[in-house]
Amino acid sequence: MYELRFLDTFKSSTRHEPDTTLPIASANWEKALAFVHFLKKFYDTTLKLSVTKTPTSHITLHEMVSLQVQIEKRIMDARDPILQNVASSMKKKFDKYWGSFESVNKLVFVALVLDSRFKLQMLKTSFQNISFNPNKIEEIVGEIRTCLLKLYSEYRVDANIGTQPMYDA
Q1: Which of the residues 10, 73, 83, 152 has the least number of beta carbons within 10 Å of its own beta carbon?
Q2: What's the per-residue H, E or C state across 53-81?
Q3: Among 44, 51, 45, 8, CA closest to 29
Q4: Is the pTM of this model over 0.70?
């Protein structure tokens, strides 16, 4: 792994530059590696969602759910209190922007469902992965289904498509 090459360099180093201290202890390297792996997910998500020439709306929900799962995993992991504390701080910031999926723009959910690889069931699964309230899951999925039916009705009228209903209720 790319970070291990630095570990070998520091362990084998017998010379010390004026601005450096003693070689980093193994326990500190383990903590650093834990931070790298935790923060890499955020870095990867930022790269995925920041691209300008590729559509990203269909992956936004997946990425946000994945980040939330990672943060909550670290909060529950008491083996590293420092990382646990960092994860708690990150959770507060995450909740500020994404915490309540009830207030997220519904088009994020519609984009997921319109991706040909996923359907409404994937939306349910995503919410179940973050231990969302089952009643709220059904409520949001119902809202998204209604939104999709309205979008289809508009499309059908505008495109003069036949009168076959898209969905039998």
Answers
A1: 73
A2: CCCCCCCHHHHHHHHHHHHHHHHHCCCCH
A3: 8
A4: no
